[in-house]
Amino acid sequence: MKNMLSRQTPVRALLKMRPMAIGMLDKRKIRYWDSLDKPLGDLFHQEGMDDFLDEVSYARVPAPDTDWSAMPLYMLVEYLTQEHRGLLLQEVGDISHLLDIHTLSDSPESADLRKLQRAFQDWVKEFQGHIDQEETYLFPKVLRYEACLRDRNVHPEFHHGSIQSYMASLEAQEGRQFYADCGDLADRMGAHERKHPDSMAARELAELTERLRDKLNAHRDLESKTLYTAARDLERSLYNKSIDGDPAVAFQRRGPMDSGILRLDEG
Q1: Which tens digits make up the pLDDT trace of 195-233?
Q2: For the chain, where are the alpha helices, taking DSSP H only?
């Protein structure tokens, strides 16, 4: 990890790779929310930079059984971000590798697997797009909302959109479709195994795809029931403070969520 970071790394890229670095920056009393596109080197002296990169490099990802209600949201975002990496490197990587190998022959099974391979490759593109949307837009917005509670000088930037509105949008609904598509793939892999009961490749693919589906469902539950529930509560609280004139969320630019006309419902 340390080799992936340098004095030229933008702060925004650091927070995307290691969200828990927020705690390390806050501990050093470094202000960074208005400097997300600046390089890390602008925030540190050389000596402090090296110590910081060491701490980021050796920081351990929270365990799956963590009590998330007792932790800052940036720790949960860290866990979810690293789980994205793990899914792509492990289950997705293993399935892709098996399909690459076992679609090379001219056997009847290989012909069936080539159809599954095309469907799986299309699904992987959907998954990567979903990850990019979360890590580029949704996760940073959650982290900023949480930062507003710790630092009154951090503005929630409602003018850049609302999590509540995004989660109800057609784009978000389409982005969540890949969960159902993964379930369909797992069913198709299972049917392939039943059609080729003596095939070790069919058995491995069915097991891997089933595991991928189970992990994704657990991941989705953690996001929707814990992270985004907390984020919407934060957004509602911060928005209501803004229309009450709280100076902590006062900002010169205005947009649809800064209209000051309607208070968000508690329900």
Answers
A1: 999 999 999 999 999 999 999 999 999 999 999 999 999
A2: 11-17, 21-27, 46-58, 73-87, 93-102, 108-133, 139-150, 163-167, 170-175, 177-195, 200-222, 228-243
Q: Are 21 and 147 in contact (CB under 8 A)?
A: no
Q: Is 183 exposed, middle or buried (0-12, 13-18, 19+ CB in 10 A)?
A: middle
Contact 9/32 with Cβ under 8 angstroms?
no
Instruction: Tell me which residue of 119, 10, 3 sits closest to 56, measured CA to CA.
Output: 3
- 145-156 tens-digit pLDDT: 999 988 888 988
Give me the residues paired with residue 39 across strands.
10
Among 174, 176, 186, smallest CA distance to 212 is for 186
Kindly report the pTM of this predicted structure.
0.87
What are the two backbone dihedrals, phi and then psi, of residue 62, each rounded to the nearest 5 degrees?
Answer: -55, 150
Q: Which residue has the tokens 């890590």?
A: 135
Q: What is the pLDDT of residues 27-67, one digit of tens each?
A: 999 999 999 999 999 998 767 888 999 999 999 999 999 99
Q: Which single residue is written with the structure tokens 């990802």?
A: 61
Beta carbons within 10 angstroms of residue 113's beta carbon: 26
Place of tokens 């069919």: 202
